[in-house]
Amino acid sequence: MYKTFFQLARNPFDLTPDPSCFVSTRRHNEALAALYYGVRWHKGFVVVTGEVGTGKTLLLRCLLRLLRESKDISYSYLFNSRLSPSEFLQYILSDFGLPASGKNKSELLLDLGQFLVSRGAKRLTTVLIVDEAHHLSDDLLEEIRLLSNLETTDDKLLQIVLVGQPELDQKLDSLGLRQLKQRIALRAQLGPLDSNETKEYIAQRLQIAGADRGRAAIFPEDTVEAVYQHSRGLPRLINTICENGLIAAYARQSAVVTPEIIGDVAREFRLGVISPNGDGEIGSGTEIDIRNAANLLLDVFAALRKPGVGEADLRALAEVSRHEPHI
Ligand SMILES: Nc1ncnc2c1ncn2[C@@H]1O[C@H](COP(=O)(O)OP(=O)(O)OP(=O)(O)O)[C@@H](O)[C@H]1O
Ligand SMILES: [Mg+2]
Q1: CATH number of the domain that 95 lies in?
Q2: Of all protein residues, whose CA lies closest to atom 25 belonging to ligand 1?
Q3: Ligand 2 center to residue 132 CA distance, Å?
Q4: CATH number of the domain that 243 lies in?
Q5: Quick one: which atom of ligand 1 is closest to the CA of 24?
Q6: 3-state secondary structure labels for all residues of 110-158
Q7: pTM of the prediction?
């Protein structure tokens, strides 16, 4: 309803994790690069953790979009991790297009093993991606660890991506799961945005929605600062506050969202002002490679955003990554 008033083509702060709204921040780039690099170069286990609403599912959707560009990658994407081991195996087999109903656990494991071996022999990449992995039971985590044992002398047959809230880190730290922890090749964390990133985030999301950066800002500097204070830099909260700020400004027929409006919204949502903390960084020695991969991803995303970009351009970009050696 406010789109015409603010001359926007779409809702800038929609809560759906939509890759076309992706805003590059250092941590998001590094985490996405760790995911992509880990899968592409057959690193085995990759784990990304982050607080609620920091962009984990969005990152996975960006990853899936990138993986879909490559014909040699097949993935199973699991977002309901509260399954029994048999249900879990059935789910991934079906996702890979294999018949799964009516089979017992050992039959399912056998079929999956054969599938992975035959794909591995053709140097194809097979990926299991689990969102909300903090909900995985210890049994299921152990099952996943056993799947990670499927490897040839020089290659891992299944790439495994686990993404979840910080409780996942705690689980992986537990004594019972130390074997799994040792297998993690790449780890990245997402955290809240800092004040400059929040400013850039708001500006970019408005721009993606069609706002003209040259026009007087809908969100002036002091308003952005108020959003940052109340959201503590958490992207989902930034979206909620900004979206409600736009609605309130529209209701008052104000072309600008003022800090007072943001204060009102924060009170309605019972958000205090808390100084942000928490940092996130790549927990691996392969930072240089990851930064290179991040640059590659930025190019890919830039290409995806360009209107009229040809598939050939994307393939050429993906080709760059394919020429890199496996492992
Ligand atoms: N880098 C980013 N660029 C654009 N939007 C982002 C970014 N990071 C997060 N968001 C937005 O923040 C919101 C929350 O993101 P998402 O749902 O991915 O969080 P999450 O970490 O998966 O949360 P949860 O732990 O609750 O599952 C979404 O609207 C998403 O689009
Ligand atoms: Mg999520």
Answers
A1: 3.40.50.300
A2: 52
A3: 6
A4: 1.10.8
A5: 1
A6: HHHHHHHHHHHHCCCEEEEEECCHHHCCHHHHHHHHHHHCCECCCCECC
A7: 0.86
